[in-house]
Every structure is written in structure tokens, then in C-alpha cells.
Specification:
- The complex is a heterodimer of chains A (about 290) and B (about 270).
- Chain A has about 290 residues and is an alpha/beta fold.
- Helices cover about 40% and strands about 25% of the residues of chain A.
- Chain A has 2 domains: about 230 residues, 3-Layer(aba) Sandwich (Rossmann fold); about 40 residues, no CATH class.
- Chain A contains 11 helices and 10 strands.
- Chain B has a two-stranded antiparallel sheet with strand order 1-2.
- The longest helix of chain B has about 30 residues.
- By secondary structure, chain B is mainly α.
- Chain B has 10 helices and 2 strands.
- In chain B, helix 3 packs parallel to helix 6, helix 7 runs antiparallel to helix 8 and helix 8 packs across helix 9.
- The chains are: A alpha/beta (about 290), B mainly alpha (about 270).
- Chains A and B meet through helix 2, strand 6 and helix 3 of A and helix 8 and helix 9 of B.
Chain lengths: ~290, ~270
């Protein structure tokens, strides 16, 4: 079942002025429940603007934004509930921390939802565990944490609202490779556990290849495609024209195939490629 | 939402007044203000009005803009008029009700004051309409440079002003981002009682302050990395140069001023 749906969604910045710019142009989308989805696109392709429509921060200039089949702009008083159902984590979310302790900051969203103190407490602890945050960190000031911990605290603040859809805008920007992988696998675990839909905006093809099932590709304010990840990566040439690319390992496999090695298609993670190459070697088809 | 706020009131078009040396424009404005306030007779207001109309035409700024700068000051205008009307007690009594008394003198002064204030607003707002904030600070620095002799930190003051002006749009953008982020967590910013609203500002203000301090520190480091050491021996990108046109303007302003003074003497 579709949880998020857009119909001819269009958004124009500064309409009616010389600075007018259409950031999202007639996007029709249907996003399913319980999926891990990657959002890719060149800088300025309209990804972030589109994401801000999903939770009603921006109102479409024209077109519709439907959540669970209902137009979110039909009843403005319900917008707040929409924001609890669709959680949005902005880029560099650590700059939005404000409370005295991490626990209180995580509690901000759930408290706005009007949950009981007990429920809030459970959610804080659960979320902290999912993101691998130490319990003792929860009582520290968020401003005293390291960069990665701050990022986790801020993401936890949105996760603790248990939204049906969680949107993360480049959650790994500025993290080291080890931190990236850890963060992404924690996000995947969260998705599996809560059976929610997670939209992951990213510039790293390797990351989306490894962690997402479907890909939403934006190009010049338009939706280029929304398909299973492996199908998107079959369009290597077209992606290149959009200023994107396939994961490096996919290009390597592609070159090997061209040289005549009998490797299967759709190898876009290092893990899968490694297994395929090993299988080929074991068959003895290739001489080292 | 916050992006729609225009910064200052600079109206970017090309006109004679826009091209004038900003230092001279400040001086013109000062002369104009002194002229307006030294005038004591209706005729001096006429001279002021001629001056403003001339400047307005030269600036090519549409009259609509002048109206925009006057609108927020309307209550002040009304207040001044009413005060003068009620409290000045001279000449024939026109209307009386218990302790309230309106006299001919009061009416005269009211009208005079209103005209004077309107001229003042329209005339002086032309300065900010035709000069960008950065040029304005440059001009203020240049005009105040004699104060360096008494160890007044003129350059530092001007630098502070430019930095403040430079960071207003940045901080507005930042505020916008933080507001969106907190709204995404269900913060309500535009409803509720007074106290609730004030409380709702905390999640916005704290991150904003933190980021302002962070930016200040980063800027200070960046300035030090480029060996910034204050105004001593520093060259400028925009050199202020007075041209013949600026001096002609000055002469015209002084002529108007002289005319006002003469009228004052003749008519009193």
C-alpha cells in the first residue's frame, strides 16, 4: 500500500519575482510502506525541496501531496500530525540541538505529540539503543558531545517520534568511513525493526547500493525514475548524463563482463561482487 | 518565509543620486535636516518641499517606496499632531469642550509639524534608498576618520557594522532552517498564549545563538589567517572618490540652506 503519494507536485520558489525558480516540476510518485529507499540526484536537482513537501513544511504551488490517501493540505489543523507521521531529519541536524541534556532533546518531539512521561522514557531508551548511544550520554549536555554523537542525538530526536516515514537528508555528511557504515546499518536496523519507510538522501552511490531497496532519482526538478535499486544501476549511461554514476564496483564488474568473464549482471555491492568472482574462480573458469 | 524580508531599504537602480559619493549624500542629508528644523515659517517648508521633490525625481525611486517608509511612522505623526493641537494655547479659540481647547495657534503648529515630519521622512529615506548599506558604512568610516586623532576606534566600528550587515541574511537563512527543523519535530510557533509563544522560541533561539557564536569564532580565525590587523595601512576594494557632480550637489544644498535662513530673517 502506498503511504506517500504525490500528484503533479510542483513547487516554485519566489513565484512572481525575477528570482523565480521551479525546484520540483510535476512529480508523480507512489511510495510504499516498509521500504528502505534511496534518494539521489545532482546538487540542486530538487531532492531536498521534494522531501520538505512530504511532511508539509512546504506547500506545493500546484499538485497534491497525499499521506495515507489523504491530501495533507485539506485540513491545516492536522499538519502537526502529518509531521509526527513523516519525520524529517535535515542536513547537519546537530545544529538544531537545544536542550540541557540529550535525553530532554530527544524527548522534544515525543512530548509535542502529547505522549505520557513513561512512554517518552521508553522511547528515549529504545532509540538510544538502536543508535548505539551509551545510556550515560543521555544525561550529558548535547553541546559537550563529539560530532558523530551529536548527529546521533539529533537523529534520535526524530526517530523517537516513531514516524511511519523517516526522511534523512544526508545523515552521513562529514562522518568518517567507519562512522558512515555504522550509522547506515543502524538506520537499516531501525527500519527493519519498526517496519517503517525510510528515505535516505545521499550522494554516495556505494551507500545507496548497499543499504536501499529502491531508488528515487531526481534530475533538474523532475523525477527521473523510481525503481528497484538494481534496475536503476543498469542505466549506467543515463546516470552519467545526470551527473551521477553507478557504484565503482559495478563499473569494475561491467568492464570484466565486457572482457568476456562470465559474471552475472546487477553486481553493485562489494560483497556481491566478491562472492561472484570467487564462485567464478572456484569453477575454474578463470586461470590466475 | 523569512527570506522575503528585504534588507535595509536599498532600491537598486541607476540614477544620478545613486552614483553620488555616499559621503556627500550623508552631508546633503544632514544639511537638509538642519534646514528643515531651522525654518520657522511656512515658506521655508515650501523650499524644503521643492528640495525633496527635486531629489526624489533625481533618484528615480518610485513614490510608492516613500509611502512605504512613511507608513510605519503614521502613528507618530498623528500623535504629534494631536499633542500640538491640544496643548498649544495661543490665538483665537476655535473649539472648546470642558478642559479641551483648540486654538488657531495649535492648528497652525500642528499642520506645520506634520508637513515638516513628512518632508523629513521622505527626504532622509532617500539616503538609504539610493545607497547600499555597505557603501553607507564605508562613508561613515570615512567621514568619522578625523575622530581617529582622539583615539576613537573608527575603523573597528565600521568593521563591526559591515560584519553585522553581512551576516543578517546568513542568520535569517539559518533561522529559517532551524525553524523548519523544529517544526518537523512538532514545535508550534504561531499559536498559543503569550507565555507559550515565548517558550516556543527557545528551541529556535538557543541553536541560533550557538551557531552565531560558532560563526563568530570561525570568522575571527579566518580573519587572523589572512593577517587582519585592523585599519592600519589597509587598502580598499571600493575607493570613495568625489567628483565634480558631488560638489555641485553640495553647492545646491548650501544654496537651499541659505535661502531658508534668508527667509527666516525676512519673514520674522
Amino acid at each position: 500500500m502506498a503511504i506517500l503519494k504525490t500528484e503533479g507536485l510542483t513547487y516554485t520558489y519566489s513565484a512572481g519575482t525575477p528570482f523565480e525558480k521551479t525546484a520540483v516540476d510535476h512529480v508523480d510518485l507512489c511510495i510504499e510502506e516498509n521500504k528502505m529507499i534511496g534518494v539521489i540526484g545532482h546538487t540542486g536537482s530538487g531532492k531536498s525541496t521534494l522531501m520538505q513537501h512530504f511532511n508539509g513544511l512546504l506547500k506545493p504551488t500546484s499538485g497534491k501531496m497525499l499521506l495515507e490517501g489523504e491530501d495533507i493540505w485539506k485540513d491545516k489543523s492536522k499538519l502537526r500530525e502529518v509531521r509526527f507521521k513523516v519525520g524529517l531529519v535535515f542536513q547537519y541536524p546537530e545544529y538544531q540541538l537545544f536542550e540541557e541534556t540529550v535525553a530532554k532533546d530527544i524527548a522534544f518531539g515525543p512530548r509535542n505529540m502529547g505522549l505520557s512521561e513513561e512512554e517518552i522514557r521508553t522511547r528515549i531508551l529504545e532509540t538510544a539503543d538502536m543508535l548505539g548511544m551509551d545510556r550515560e550520554l543521555l544525561e550529558r549536555s548535547p553541546f559537550a558531545l563529539s560530532g558523530g554523537q551529536k548527529r546521533r542525538a539529533a537523529i534520535a530526536g526524530v526517530m523517537a517520534m516513531r514516524p511511519k516515514v523517516l526522511i534523512l537528508d544526508e545523515p552521513c555528511a562529514g562522518l568518517d568511513p567507519k562512522g558512515r557504515n555504522l550509522m547506515l546499518s543502524q538506520i537499516r536496523d531501525y527500519q527493519k525493526k519498526t517496519k517503517s519507510t525510510v528515505l535516505l538522501v545521499s550522494h554516495s552511490m556505494e551507500d545507496v547500493a548497499e543499504f536501499t531497496e529502491k531508488l528515487l532519482v531526481m534530475s533538474k526538478a523532475k523525477l527521473f525514475c523510481y525503481e528497484d535499486t538494481y534496475k536503476v544501476f543498469r542505466k549506467a549511461e543515463e546516470l552519467k548524463q545526470l551527473g551521477l554514476r553507478v557504484p565503482q564496483i559495478a563499473s569494475v564488474m561491467q568492464s570484466l563482463r565486457k572482457k568476456g568473464y562470465a559474471l552475472p549482471e546487477d553486481l553493485y555491492t562489494v560483497e556481491a561482487a566478491r562472492n561472484a568472482v570467487l564462485a567464478l574462480l572456484r569453477k575454474g573458469a578463470v586461470q590466475c | 518565509m523569512l527570506k522575503d524580508i528585504t534588507l535595509g531599504q536599498y532600491f537598486p537602480i541607476d540614477s544620478v543620486l545613486h552614483r553620488c559619493d555616499p559621503r556627500f549624500k550623508i552631508i546633503y542629508t544632514l544639511i537638509f535636516i538642519i534646514m528643515l528644523f531651522s525654518g520657522t515659517h511656512y515658506w521655508t517648508l515650501v523650499i524644503g518641499a521643492v528640495f525633496v521633490i527635486m531629489a526624489q525625481l533625481l533618484s528615480k525611486v518610485p513614490l510608492k517606496m516613500s509611502w512605504k517608509s512613511m507608513k510605519p511612522l503614521l502613528p507618530v505623526l498623528v500623535f504629534t499632531a494631536v499633542l500640538n493641537l491640544v496643548f498649544i494655547d495661543s490665538g483665537d479659540i476655535l473649539w472648546e469642550w470642558r478642559f479641551l481647547k483648540i486654538t488657531q495657534g495649535g492648528v497652525n503648529t500642528s499642520i506645520f509639524m506634520i508637513c515638516r515630519i513628512i518632508l523629513l521622512i521622505v527626504g532622509s529615506s532617500l539616503l538609504t534608498y539610493t545607497t547600499s548599506p555597505i557603501l553607507l558604512t564605508d562613508a561613515i568610516e570615512s567621514l568619522m576618520s578625523p575622530l581617529k586623532k582622539i583615539n576613537f576606534p573608527v575603523h573597528e566600528m565600521a568593521m563591526m557594522m559591515s560584519i553585522a550587515l553581512r551576516f543578517i541574511p546568513t542568520l535569517l537563512e539559518e533561522t529559517d532552517k532551524i525553524m523548519s527543523a523544529q517544526k518537523a519535530r512538532g514545535a508550534t510557533l504561531d499559536s498559543g498564549k503569550m507565555m507559550e509563544r515565548v517558550k516556543a522560541m527557545i528551541p529556535i533561539l538557543i541553536p541560533l545563538f550557538v551557531s552565531a557564536f560558532r560563526r563568530a569564532e570561525e570568522l575571527a580565525t579566518a580573519m587572523e589567517c589572512r593577517c587582519y590587523r585592523g585599519g592600519e595601512g589597509r587598502t580598499r576594494l571600493r575607493q570613495l572618490k568625489a567628483s565634480g557632480r558631488d560638489y555641485i550637489g553640495l553647492v545646491i544644498c548650501l544654496l537651499f540652506f541659505a535661502l531658508t535662513v534668508t527667509l527666516n530673517i525676512i519673514l520674522s
